[in-house]
Structures are given as C-alpha cells and as structure tokens.
Amino acid sequence: MELILIRHGLPIRSAATDDPPLSPEGQDQARRVALWLAQEKIDAVCSSSMVRAVQTAEPFAAQAGHDVRLHNGIVEFDKGSGAYVPMEQLKREDYEAWKALAGGDHGIDVAAFQSVVVQGMEEIIADHPGQRVAVFCHGGVINVWTAHVLGMAPRLFFEPAYTSVHRYMCARGGQRNVLSLNETAHLRPGFVS
Questions:
Q1: What's the angle, vertex CA 154, arms to CA 180 and CA 55, rounded to 5?
Q2: Any idea of the CA torsion for 77, 79, 83, 86, to the nearest 10 degrees?
Q3: Mean pLDDT of the chain
Q4: What is the largest CA-CA distance in the chain?
Q5: Can you give the pLDDT at residue 102?
Q6: How far is CA 177 from CA 75, 146, 150, 155, in A?
Q7: Please, what are the domains in the chain?
Q8: Which secondary structure element, helix H or strand E, spans residue 166, and what is its range?
Q9: What is the pLDDT of residue 42?
C-alpha cells in the first residue's frame, strides 16, 4: 500500500491553545494541496485529531468524496503544551529556542513519541491493504515516521514545509520504503489553483 503523509497548513499563532485553526494562508495551502492530490486515486483519508490537520484534510476529502477518519495516534508532540508558535516564527524570534527544539530538546521523550506514531501508522496500514491513503498530520509525526522507515534513531531531522507531501511504500511483509519527501510543487506561484 502507499501511505501519503501531508503536513497541515500554516495555523495561527496562539498563546491560548496548542490546537489553533489554520490561518488564511494555511487555508489557501490546504486548498492547493487538495487540488494537487485530486490528480491521484486515493482510497481513504485519515487525519490527526488536531484542528490544523483536520482543516487541512477537509478540502481534499470533500472534493474526493471521502470521510475524514480521525486518529489520535498521529497527533503532534506539542499536544498539551497550551500554546502554538509556527516554527519559522520561533526561528526568527528566538533562534536559541528553535535550535533547542530542532535539536530534540523540547521536553518530550522522542522515542516514546515515535513509538506512538509508528503504532498509529501501522494501524492505518493494516486497515488499508493494497490501498493508497492520504494521512494529514504534523511535522514531528513525519520526522519520527521517516526516521523509523530509514532505520535512524528517533529525532527531528528535517523541516517539512506546510502542506508538503511525503510518500512511503508499505509492503504486507513489513518492508517500509521512502518514495519521496517534501513535495511542494503545489505551493509554487505557477501552480494553477
């Protein structure tokens, strides 16, 4: 089966919640990725239960005629933190805090987080043999899943763009392979939206 992970669009910054909605730019990104994915046959849509992922999934699911299946095993590591600052804003405003976060010093057990994510992804894979599934989730989720597939130690090692697309082949025998990472052609100015 093919697992297609899509990072959520840009959310608003919030000091009041770790689960904010998409910003207007994020809504546009969600619309663009929906149009991009419309060119493909996708059998099912899953999403993290966090608002920013669900709102990113909805435009594609609506146009493809799919329900969005929520999955708590693929929520971001910041759930429960009480606030949300987009990574690029954090990098501009507090480089040391961003560097600590990017380096894995974010107050979470990355190995335990990866274990939850891998279990969640494996449940999705098991539920959809031979299918192509779009999974709307988060940058940290994409990082630890990719590290798992590549056989790397659990860590945050690259920066998935908002609404970037990441593809994996997942064989019944347990083999997991990366097909592509960080596809963003739909975000380019020349993409007809």
A1: 60
A2: 50
A3: 91
A4: 46
A5: 61
A6: 22, 9, 8, 18
A7: 2-171 (3.40.50.1240)
A8: strand 165-170
A9: 98
Q: How far is CA 179 from CA 159, 169, 170, 185, in A?
A: 17, 7, 10, 16
The order of strands in the sheet holding 2-7 is 68-71, 44-48, 132-137, 2-7, 165-170, 176-183
- The pTM assigned to this predicted structure is 0.92
Question: Among the residues of 38-106, which ranges form H helices?
Answer: 51-64, 87-93, 95-102
CA distance 65 to 38: 11
Structure tokens at 158: 């690259």
Grouping H, G, I as helix, E, B as strand and the rest as coil, residue 120 is helix
- Taking the chain (193 residues) in runs of 10, the rounded mean pLDDT of each run is 98 87 97 96 98 98 97 88 75 75 67 95 97 97 97 89 98 96 93 68
- Dihedral, 142, 16, 30, 122 alpha carbons, nearest 10: 30
